[in-house]
Amino acid sequence: MSFTEKIGQLMQRPGQDAIPNDDVPWWMKYAGRGLGTVGGGIAIFLGIWAATGILFAQIDCLIAGIWQMLAGFLVIVIEAPCCCMFLDFVQSASDFMEQKPYYYRGALYIVISLPAVVLCLSLSTIFGSGLIFGTGVIYGMMSLGKKASAEEMRTKAAAGVDAGPGGVAPDVQSHMKSSLVDNAQPVAFTGSPYDSNV
């Protein structure tokens, strides 16, 4: 058993399968969970900082700060329920999100990170909500799945049989490729214009 597998067994959640069901690299899972946990905490702190805008009669910054604190708390609840184990609903909310595909979490984090920046454009909201947005981007990349090997991509490109998500038939696809190649123009290099007055 490798070192990363031992660490993975130590870090797995209760009731989680010992064998992962997806092809996401381990470092990407830990990057998403780590950035979500740390970024949620920083977003809460910076939300408090943005909410002090009420001292200068900036109501929009107060609302943005409260929103950012709630968004940071939600991210911590989902990513690190052990930080909020004194609340009884935290584990069930975290388990609910664990059963959903990665793009649910990615879309949720991206959507909840935007209103604070829209309401109050300040450094604290940009950085705090940016960490939540970055967590959403990582989960979005995780939802794309594992990239194929170089050899597999070469064979599919050479054969032209992979129709892709559009469902284009291989004969239509090869016809489209041939017309694109037939209509290609040669590339020529022209030097700088020659000035006869010099």
Automatic annotation (TrEMBL):
It is found in: Cytoplasmic vesicle, Secretory vesicle, Synaptic vesicle membrane; Endosome; Presynaptic cell membrane. It is a multi-pass membrane protein. The chain crosses the membrane at residues 35-59, 65-90, 125-144. Keywords: Calcium, Calcium channel, Calcium transport, Cell projection, Cytoplasmic vesicle, Endocytosis, Endosome, Ion channel, Ion transport, Membrane, Transmembrane, Transmembrane helix, Transport. The keyword Calcium applies. Homomultimer. Associates with the dally/ magu complex. This is Calcium channel flower. It comes from Frankliniella occidentalis (Western flower thrips). The gene is LOC113203138.
